[in-house]
Amino acid sequence: MRPPPLRRARLGATLCAIVAVVVSGCAIGPDTGPDVVTGGGGGGAAPSSSSATPEPPMIEAPKTDLTWTECARATATRYGVTAPAGVTVECAELDTPIDPDRPTATTLTVALTRARVTDTPPDAAPVVLTAGTDVPSSRALLLLARGPGRSLLTQHPVVAVDRRGTPTSSPLDCMTRFERSAMATNGLAGNASMPQSERIDRLARAAASASDGCNETLSPNQLDFGVAFAAADLEALRIRWGVAHLALLGLGEGSDVVLAYAADYAG
């Protein structure tokens, strides 16, 4: 079930890794031209249209910010990368309802990572970065800060929000050692000479067992870790900051989260 939209929310979104395709219709055969109407009656004036592009909503610095602590070395070590030189990397946590429809029920903890440089204006509004489940947002932030994307930090701090259920944000841990090993090794589990039929059977049994076990462990919240709920975590961050809009940067699968946020909370 998707979280319901909140009418008061607004969105200022920047989308990455999204390709827009414009398709025009074509007709086969000779063009006979438009129909012609003859007579003395003059047509009315064509309706005027404005080509002015609406101004994007203003974004602002958080009114009630989170508690940030320095974490450059720990974050870089976690992902086996070099911490970007000259970049301040800080971490914080946000408690958010596991089910937005029941905000007073069980909560989970979402990890956030912020990057900024000396030139980042202290009152600049943050850009919120979200990536997928394959590449954690915090790792994507370190890579962005080491590459050409670093220029963004001279204008705005960037805050990465790790997806719920990933290792830093209330990780899901519902598989046994056998299940995890079988899936990680594609059924081989240290025996490279295993016959293919046995490997497939081992992998199938591990997958079925993990599905049953995780379904039982996560009940009744099995479906609360998808894109719509990742978007709900962004909305929880907006509310926590006390701002009217978010500037969002979606990388890879994170573009799905940005689109879900726009669908559920823009208005």
From TrEMBL:
Disordered: annotated segments: 37-60
Name recorded for this polypeptide: Putative hydrolase
Coiled coil: none
UniProt entry tagged with the keyword Signal: yes
Signal peptide extent: 1-29
Organism: Gordonia rhizosphera NBRC 16068
GO molecular function: hydrolase activity
InterPro entries: AB_hydrolase_fold
Keyword vocabulary terms for this entry: Hydrolase, Signal
Lineage of the organism: Bacteria, Bacillati, Actinomycetota, Actinomycetes, Mycobacteriales
